[in-house]
Amino acid sequence: MAPKLLSSSNFKSLFDSVDTFLFDCDGVIWKGDTLIDGVSQTLDLLRSKGKNIVFVTNNSMKSRRQFAEKFRSLGLTSVTQDEIFCTSFAAAMYLKANNFPKDKKVYAIGGAGILEELQLAGFTGLGGPEDGEKKAQWKSNCLFQHDKTVGAVVVGLDPNINYYKLQYGTLCVRENPGCLFIATNRDAVGHMTDLQEWPGAGCMVAAMCGSTEREPIVVGKPATFMMDFLIQKFGTETSRMCMVGDRLDTDVLFGQNAGCKTLLVLSGCTSESNLLDESNKIEPDYYTSMVSDITKLMDSP
Amino acid sequence: MLNRTLVSSSSVSLLPNSKPFFSVKNLSGFRSSSFSGGFIRRINHKPLCVMTPNLTPRAMAAQQLENADQLIDSVETFIFDCDGVIWKGDKLIEGVPETLDMLRAKGKRLVFVTNNSTKSRKQYGKKFETLGLNVNEEEIFASSFAAAAYLQSINFPKDKKVYVIGEEGILKELDLAGFQYLGGPDDGKKQIELKPGFLMEHENDVGAVVVGFDRYFNYYKIQYGTLCIRENPGCLFIATNRDAVTHLTDAQEWAGGGSMVGALVGSCQREPLVVGKPSTFMMDYLSDKFGIEKSQICMVGDRLDTDILFGQNGGCKTLLVLSGVTSISMLESPENKIQPDFYTSKISDFLSLKAANV
């Protein structure tokens, strides 16, 4: 069915059928480090009407705690850490849920957020940002060493990607028996700055697929791993949830895969023409220009 | 085995209103064809990037080489891979010089085809010389050379530039072929700061991005290459090769060109034109250049999914040597679908097997 433009004629039925709103962050709540207009009032309004709010982001650069700080710095002081589901947290939870042994280590190709979440979950992390300074040596008698007790390699967005990290991760995955290859997400690009798109985690993950010849376990959208936590947290049916996002192949697909209602906002990387183009096969239930439209429609008669 | 599909028209995203500004040659044949559309039409011809095992897998299992003379007499040209066949890292494999001399004495043409793009042909010539091997620069075909040769074959305009994500070998070959380039190892020093208001600029006259093995790989290069491919109309995305791992040193494997190419595929969501093995570009080039029939060629290599597949795709005889990355158990594994005609432990078996038959 074709996506419906959110309007006063259909808003109430959506609103009444949903208990929990799941918001993506980049392109929905903020763009880079700038808050999108009207978001604060909309979140407050939803809370005042008794709706649950959570944030589900594929970004793995920060931990939940660091994301909560970002929300606070943008004036969204009501957001707490346990309402935030980012993929750094998801990767650590995946390992926990699968009884990853505490005597094994995790090699991280990505931001500090991954290492922090691993530590919080009781795991030993290696790599991360400091490996951005390391260089490999290739002399006849020089062996590139890697820790044989690494049992998982977690790969996320890494603007400090280099050959050393790719080689380290590759050796772990190829040579440590049973080593897991986990991807936080596979977004090809993202708006890391407000002015243009930049390569996303999908790029680092594909680099590792190229050298390991293996496909990763993906914990971020559109995989529904994070949904399991949300269901447990709220104890509600996914049909009473609405995923609000700006990206069709992650946010909307995630919502659809999990059986939620889906609302696409055009304040991020997807335009109306992208959505309505013949080649697009992913159709959200509804679409609107930005999150603050919810406030406008709530106020209208 | 590799989990990639043949390039199909549905997996290629075409830039809106993009048209190549020159005629693009089909990579599996040297015949020219002009296309006024984008890449989708070209893909209706033979696949450009053959990564899955050959569509007609050989039903017969590889035979252990016993009658070396028969094989030698049945072909006019031997194409040798280098890493794992001639040398391992910087060490010559035992018996190689005598074997090559014997083949030359029998009047055989010898050619060396390597996916390594870090050196130019000239630099490889020096490596052969240092190892005491009598090999001419004209007999060496590295994938750095292949990238430049490909651009020449499609008449890539000299007023367009090439952005290189790779090492010196590619830059040297582009230079020799008269192409302007940007990037290379120097861009490995460039840093970016992702902050509000920062915009990365890129040159609009880059008409091709060549990606190969790159030890100086970084986010700057990935973004630069991505911007060119995505935003410069008709910009080509060329890969020297997609080897997952490579033997940079003889002691261990190292992440290969397949990693850097994978990164660009991940951000651009486009498949590249591959000039190195197993793509047959270099085979077609050689057969054209030397006027040889492919049935008169034997490809000798240590890697099933590049060397042997290259030989099979090209219609040559194939000989796998076990002196490199492939072991007998890998060859005989039920998961392996690529069966060379013959296999033997190393190329000097040509001499010892010969001696045994006397």
UniProtKB/TrEMBL annotation, chain A:
Enzymatic reactions: 2-phosphoglycolate + H2O = glycolate + phosphate
GO annotation, cellular component aspect: chloroplast
Segments crossing the lipid bilayer: none
UniProt: Mg(2+) binding residues: D24, D26, D246
InterPro entries: HAD-like_sf, HAD-SF_hydro_IIA, HAD_sf, PGP_euk
Catalytic residues as annotated in Swiss-Prot or TrEMBL: D24 (nucleophile), D26 (proton donor)
Sorted UniProt keywords: Acetylation, Chloroplast, Hydrolase, Magnesium, Metal-binding, Phosphoprotein, Photorespiration, Plastid, Transit peptide
Swiss-Prot/TrEMBL cofactor(s): Mg(2+)
Binding site for substrate: K221
Any one GO molecular-function label of the UniProt entry: phosphoglycolate phosphatase activity
Coiled coil regions, renumbered to chain: none
Record-linked Pfam families: Hydrolase_6, Hydrolase_like
Comment on bound cofactor: Divalent metal ions. Mg(2+) is the most effective.
Compartments in which it is found: Plastid, Chloroplast
EC number assigned by the record: 3.1.3.18
Uppermost EC category: hydrolase
GO biological process: photorespiration
Sequence similarity: Belongs to the HAD-like hydrolase superfamily. CbbY/CbbZ/Gph/YieH family.
NCBIfam families linked: HAD-SF-IIA (TIGR01460), PGP_euk (TIGR01452)
Function in brief: Photorespiratory enzyme that dephosphorylates the 2-phosphoglycolate produced by the RuBisCO oxygenation reaction.
Name of protein: Phosphoglycolate phosphatase
Organism expressing this protein natively: Brassica carinata
Lineage: Eukaryota, Viridiplantae, Streptophyta, Embryophyta, Tracheophyta
From TrEMBL, chain B:
GO annotations of cellular component type: chloroplast
Cofactor note: Divalent metal ions. Mg(2+) is the most effective.
Alphabetical keyword list: Acetylation, Chloroplast, Hydrolase, Magnesium, Metal-binding, Phosphoprotein, Photorespiration, Plastid, Transit peptide
GO molecular function: metal ion binding; phosphoglycolate phosphatase activity
Pfam family, one: Hydrolase_6
Principal location: plastid
Protein name per Swiss-Prot or TrEMBL: phosphoglycolate phosphatase
